[in-house]
Amino acid sequence: MVATGPKHGIGRGPRTSCGDLRNASFRASISALGSIPGPFNWTEPHRDLGDARLTVMDIQVLEREIYSEAEAARLLRVAQSTLHYWLEGGVRRGKRYKPVIRVEPKGTRSVTWAEFVEAGLLREYRREHQVPMPELRHFIETLRHKLGVPYPLAHQRPFVGVGRQLVVEAQDEVGLEPEFFLVATAREQLVLTAPSQMFVDRVTWEGDLAAAWRPHDDLESPVRVSPLQRFGRPAVGGISTEVLWEHEDAGESVDEIADAFALTRRDVRWALAYENASRAA
After folding, report:
1. Model's pTM, two decimal places?
2. Which of 10, 49, 53, 91 is deepest in the core (most CB within 10 A)?
3. Is the dihedral of CA 105, 111, 113, 118 positive or negative?
4. Rounded to an integer, what distance in angstroms lies between the CA atom of residue 120 and that of residue 275?
5. What proportion of the chain, given as a percentage, has pLDDT over 90?
6. Would you place residue 54 in the very low, low, confident or very high pLDDT band (cuts 50, 70, 90)?
7. Strand, coil or helix: 155
8. From the CB of residue 71, how many other CB atoms can be counted at a distance below 10 Å?
9. Cα–chain-centroid distance for residue 230?
């Protein structure tokens, strides 16, 4: 494979600083959409959540088609057939099930940023249990109405403060089984369950929205995917992990790669660890 980057004079896009995800606004660079159709006015405050409204720019980012179904499944490390079932529903044992994530099937193999993030939560439960389609669909619909946001699991509100109480109410209303709870009660406190906490730890929140997601299982990994960075591809310090792996594959050392891309040695090692694990999976 031909290596690309500054030493070869090709293949490297505009330099993005290591802190661009934290410092650049998640909402910048997005043009206004106009009105958003649907049963709610998503841009108005809702219930007792304070200023939980979403701007049309927020919604456009959430609804941006980022991945093919196959790409999203690879990043999430779930079978594509499983992801397709969550997104489009399907027929099992002669019974047709509606999607868990989408309101209705779209008949498309593309995945939006919001759908990708919400699938990221379902994958945490998938590790331990079969995801119960009807119950989770009803739960997400109920949460959508209670929070007044179109993509409740791509929004931080269910996981903090008063939002946790709304999650408990939604869990009780739909009769969700305890192993699928997002929020539980411990010592009279509302706490996140283990899968819910693992999901929250993977997300980089900007304001109330999911701005990035960590595809690497290790909590310390700086590798992120973001809808506004490298077309949603895994990156560290603004540089594609695949590009860094190509340089190492071409025989360059960690020190040489770090110097060439103005990254720390630690970041390069994390990028290579992620790529090697992904290719071995």
Report:
1. 0.78
2. 49
3. positive
4. 19
5. 57
6. low
7. strand
8. 16
9. 15
